[in-house]
Amino acid sequence: MTAFIPPPGPRRLLYLSVATRGLGFALWTTISVLYYTRVVGLSPGEVAAGLTLAGLAGLAAGPLVGRLADRRGIREITLVVYTLQVAGPLLALFVSDFVTFVGVAVLVSASLAVSQGLSRGLVGYLAGDQATTLRAQNQTISQVTGCAGMAVPAIALHLDTPGAYRTMIALCALFLAASPLLIARLPHLPPVAAPSRGARAALRDLPYLAVCVICGVLYTTVAISEVVLPLWIVRQTSAPPWTLSVVLVVASVALAVLTVPFTARVTSLTQGGRALVRGGATALAAFALIGLSSGMPAPIAFCLLLMGVALIALAELWVMAGEFALSYGLAPAHAQAEYQSVLSVAQSLAVAITPGIAVPLIDTGGIAGWLTIGLIFTLAGALAPLAVRLTKETV
Fold first, then answer.
1. What is the pLDDT of residues 218-238, one digit of tens each?
2. CATH 3.60.15.10 corresponds to the domain 202-394
């Protein structure tokens, strides 16, 4: 178990902070939309429009706050952002119309988007050359607590009363409140002085932005598993509806168990680029199996879907290993939070636009649509070593 949990000290505190935030935001993600529609009385269209506006605001804030954290002290800026995260769910209890909903949604989305880059930046400041190990440990506990956090609201969903929904939101705020208390116990992390010459903003580092785009494309397996795959199983296959739950549980367990040992094998920039190549090629094989499940008898369709999702999990492991190695290996010591925030924005944008592209492509193309998406993944992965070489040449 010691490989999965950091030793006592600042890294353990950050790890526990990730765990409590994972619980809180899993609760929020599961319950918030239903709370706004069933308790507040907003229409699904209003909720969708408000969340879109809030998401855009959050993405815009990430790199700016990351740069501020690198200049003023990442512990202090993170403490402020994590405290604001607690305010979001609490204020949601007082939402009464669309305008107040948008205000709260912007606060929640902005603090969430910003906190992802700050959390990754803290890993870089605290762990140094062991950053990929700590990031893998944090990723694992985030997956575990996220699954637990999504299970708890089942009680509120069953009761389906305003009091039950409000209780879950208050519980979400309680979990989130633990996070800044843990961050407050971290030591001050003084900013690293930028070099007098050659320093540049992450958004002007074109080779690094190319790496971010590649990682963003490969990261969209998240959206494919959560949005595209459920629609495919229901609309295009004869597999029983519970197939989705089974295959996703298998994938989640595999990721939770294998993330730490898998990422430990990828430590250099060259290895990181090669890992992304493997991730893209593995995704193509996964999508081909899923595409073949259409028109098959239920038992065969189930087996193909199970093998396909298992390969998606393997692809995600390769992608995480490559992304962790590259994101910390390429980020300058004085700009960890800024660079991690830019990568987080690229991944969030890619996930946001994927359903609008992938769902109609697969609905109309079937297996050809799946293969097209797989080829995009393969191409993105194949470009990773070139992008890494370009980035190294500009350092």
1. 999 988 887 788 888 888 899
2. no
